Amino acid sequence: MHEYTSTARVWGLTCPGFPEEVSRARRWTRDILRGSPLADDAELIVSELSANAILHTASGGLGSFHLALAVSPKVVALSVTDEGGTGTGPKVEQPNEDAVHGRGLGMVSVIAHRVIVHGSHSGYTVTAELFTDAQPGGHPC
């Protein structure tokens, strides 16, 4: 293979910060990954990350959020970038059993093989990676 050629394919989508855009993000992900054994997990992850962007950052309402989906022979990487505006970044929490919020990113971290958070108060990108050659339940250490 030529050193400047890649087998990865990348898609991007920017959505207004309205709740109904979460279903659009799910459909978009499902359409791109149609036939992939990772499609259901990817759709669930995109749904959670998109909802978090709308509910917990300046992306909601008049803002927007951006999705990126990269597919290679070894990994499917899903990224959601928000518009920030909060004092704290996304993090996996261990809420008590009566808590109404705080479980979503934890769920994503269980489904994905790796979750990475980048950014600052002006905007965060959460990337979840699904490895194509991993066994079910065989998340790397």
Percentage of β-strand residues: 25-35%
Instruction: Let me know the largest β-sheet.
Output: 5 strands, antiparallel
Structural class: alpha+beta
Whole-number radius of gyration? 15 Å
Organism: Streptomyces tibetensis
InterPro entries: Anti-sigma-factor_SerPK, HATPase_C_sf, HATPase_dom
Protein name: ATP-binding protein
GO molecular function, one term: ATP binding
Describe this structure in words.
- Helices cover 27% and strands 28% of the residues.
- The protein is of the alpha+beta class.
- Strands 1-2-3-5-4 form a 5-stranded antiparallel sheet, with helices on one face.
- The longest helix has 18 residues, at 39-56.
- It holds the Pfam family HATPase_c_2.
- Residues 19-128 form the Histidine kinase/HSP90-like ATPase domain.
- GO terms for molecular function: ATP binding.
- This is ATP-binding protein.
Which short descriptors sum up this protein?
5 strands; 141 residues; five-stranded antiparallel β-sheet
Summary, kept brief:
With 141 residues, the protein is α+β, with helices and mostly antiparallel strands. The protein is built from 3 helices and 5 strands, in the order E-H-H-E-E-H-E-E. GO terms for molecular function: ATP binding.
Secondary-structure map:
Elements: E1 9-16, H1 21-32, H2 39-56, E2 64-71, E3 75-81, H3 104-111, E4 114-120, E5 123-131
Antiparallel strand pairs: 1-2, 2-3, 3-5, 4-5
Helix pairs in contact: 1-2, 2-3
